[in-house]
Write a structure and sequence with these properties.
It is a single chain. The protein is an all-alpha fold. The protein has a single domain, classed as Glycosyltransferase, CATH 1.50.10.20. Helices cover 48% and strands 1% of the residues. A two-stranded antiparallel sheet has the order 1-2. It starts with 9 loop residues before the first helix and ends in an 11-residue tail after the last helix. About 2% of the residues have low confidence.
C-alpha cells in the first residue's frame, strides 16, 4: 500500500469558506458559534446542554473563521484523558477529545502535557478495533467495523501526529462495506450506499493511494446531487441536506479532476437557504434550528466548493 498521502483536512478546507463569505458574514457566523458556548467552556448541543462532540464543531468553526476563543483554559479539564470519566469514555468521546486538543493547539493554546494526552486517547481507541481490521464506533471488539469509525480513527491519528497502525487492514475492511450499487455503508448487507459513508470511504481510499476505488466512490456521490443544489443522503431520499452536501463536496475536492463538477450557483444557493438570521445554519429545509455542528458543515461545504471551482467569486455578494 502507498504511504499515507497528506491531504487538506476538514478544518483547512472549511477555512477556504472565507474566500466566499464577506467579512461581515463571517463575523455573523463567528458570533453565533461563540453564543453556543456554555458556562463550563464546552459548546452546547441543540438542547442547550454542554457537549464534547458539539465542542469539536464549535472549535473547528472558530479555527476556520480565524476567530479567537475567549478563555480557552476552561476547556482543559474536558480534554484531560487521565480522569476516571475519560478512562470509561466512548469512542466518540475519545475522538472528540483528540480533535478538541488539536483545535486548541491551532488556536494557540497548546500545553506541555498534550503529547501525553494524545497518546492516552489514541491508546483507548484500540479497544474499538474490529476483528476484520477496521474500527467500530458502536462497540468494542466488534466483528465488523464501520466506515465512519475508520475515518474518525484516521483523522484522530492525524490530529495527534501518531501513525495509524495497520492501515492496510483498515482499508481492506472497507471492501465488505461496499454496496451493490457502488456506494458504501456502515453495515454490510445493505443494498444501497449512503452519502456520508461513501464520502468517508472516498477520503480514506484517496489518502492511501487507492485512486481508482476513490474515483468510483466519488462518481457514486455525483449521482446523489439534487438538481436544485445540494446532495441527498441516499438514493431513496428525495431532498438534500447539509451534512450530505458537505461530506460529498469534501470528498470530491480531494479527488480532482472530477468527471463532472457540482454546479456552483445552485449549490451555493442551497447552502445559503439554510443560513438563519441568528448567523448559524440548520441541517435541512424543514429544520428551523441552527446549531454549531451544521454551521461548521456549511463552512466545510463552501470551502470544498471553492477548492473544486478554484475560488469563484460570484457568492461574495450573497453571503454577507
Amino acid at each position: 500500500m502507498s504511504a499515507n498521502i497528506r491531504l487538506p483536512d476538514i478544518i483547512s478546507t472549511a477555512a477556504r469558506s472565507r474566500v466566499l463569505i464577506s467579512s461581515e458574514g463571517a463575523d455573523r457566523v463567528a458570533v453565533f458559534v461563540l453564543s453556543a458556548r456554555g458556562a463550563g467552556g464546552l459548546f452546547c448541543d441543540r438542547a442547550g446542554q454542554p457537549d464534547l462532540y458539539y465542542t469539536v464543531f464549535g472549535l473547528g468553526g472558530l479555527v476556520a473563521l480565524g476567530a479567537d476563543l475567549p478563555q480557552p483554559r476552561d476547556l482543559r479539564p474536558c480534554c484531560d484523558t487521565g480522569d476516571g470519566a475519560a478512562a470509561g469514555a466512548s469512542f466518540i468521546d475519545c475522538v472528540s477529545r483528540i480533535r478538541c486538543l488539536h483545535c486548541l493547539s491551532l488556536l494557540g493554546n497548546a500545553q506541555p502535557g498534550d503529547a501525553w494526552r494524545f497518546e492516552q486517547a489514541i491508546a483507548r481507541l484500540d479497544r474499538y478495533r474490529s476483528a476484520d481490521g477496521g474500527y467500530s464506533h458502536e462497540r468494542e471488539q466488534a466483528a465488523q467495523g464501520t466506515v465512519y469509525a475508520a475515518y474518525l480513527v484516521e483523522q484522530a491519528h492525524q490530529d495527534a501526529g501518531i501513525a495509524c497502525p495497520d492501515p492496510e487492514r483498515t482499508i481492506a475492511s472497507l471492501d465488505t462495506l461496499r454496496t451493490p450499487d457502488g456506494g458504501y455503508t456502515n453495515h454490510s448487507g445493505t443494498p444501497c450506499g449512503t452519502t456520508t459513508a461513501t464520502a468517508a470511504a472516498a477520503v480514506l481510499l484517496t489518502r492511501y493511494g487507492k485512486r481508482e476505488q476513490a474515483r468510483q466512490a466519488v462518481d457514486y456521490l455525483a449521482k446523489l446531487r439534487h438538481p436544485d443544489g445540494g446532495y441527498r443522503a441516499a438514493p431513496s431520499v428525495s431532498l438534500p441536506d447539509l451534512l450530505s452536501t458537505a461530506t460529498a463536496l469534501y470528498a470530491e475536492s480531494l479527488c480532482e479532476p472530477l468527471t463532472e463538477k457540482p454546479p456552483f450557483l445552485p449549490t451555493t444557493a442551497f447552502i445559503e437557504s439554510l443560513w438563519n438570521s441568528d448567523g448559524g445554519f440548520r441541517s435541512h429545509a424543514a429544520d428551523p434550528v441552527s446549531d454549531v455542528e451544521y454551521t461548521f458543515y456549511a463552512l466545510l461545504a463552501l470551502g470544498a466548493l471553492d477548492a473544486i471551482h478554484h475560488s469563484k467569486t460570484e457568492i461574495n455578494s450573497t453571503f454577507n
